[in-house]
Amino acid sequence: MSKTDLLFELYSNLSTTGALTFSSKSLVNKMLSYSDLSDAKLIVEMGGGDGSITQGIVDRLAPDAELLVFEISTSFCDAMKKQFPQENVKIINDSAENIHLYLDGKKVDYIFSSLPFSFISPEIRDEILRQSRSALSSSGYFIQICYSYLLKGLFKKHFSSVKSSFTLKNLPPAFVMICN
Q: Domain of life, per the record (predicted)?
């Protein structure tokens, strides 16, 4: 899928992508700087999109680690399956609220999310966050990109610790919420 096709998908489904453009390399690096993937065995990404965050994770992924990428857009999934053919990377065309169906009882070390929580119904976003909290290991982190600081209150309802960071090096500028 070309970048033009990916941009068309992005804009034609703005309510599910929730972004005006794809995440910048600076934002991806900022998000991933709050993790140590060298010892992580199971990582989840919610909202794979064009694969920019996925690529950053794959670049840091230990050879024996597994990455599950949830994406509801079939077009994005098809493109990511071609971009990430590795056996330890699973592209899942399903809603993140169904994470529990894919874990086989395993606990997750990191969940990286770029889901547009501002556009998701309260019931579904609460279920996604409940499932995420339940899926994490006791030392696990949920790390979220968002464009509104006001979402910090939403994450505080589900996680005991929520820290935030901000970067101007993205269009639009973005927050990274680090939750555990």
A: Bacteria
- In the chain, the domains with their CATH numbers are 3-179 (3.40.50.150)
pLDDT digits 0-9 by tens, 37-75: 999 999 999 999 999 999 999 999 999 999 999 999 999
C-alpha torsion sign, points 88, 116, 93, 48? negative
pTM score of the predicted model: 0.89
Strand order in the sheet with 174-179: 89-92, 66-70, 42-46, 108-113, 136-146, 174-179, 162-167
| CA proximity to 162, closest of 152, 170, 150, 172 | 152
Q: Which two tokens stand for residue 14?
A: 């703005």
* Amino acid letter, residue 23: S
Asked whether the CA dihedral 12, 18, 24, 25 is positive or negative, the reply is: negative
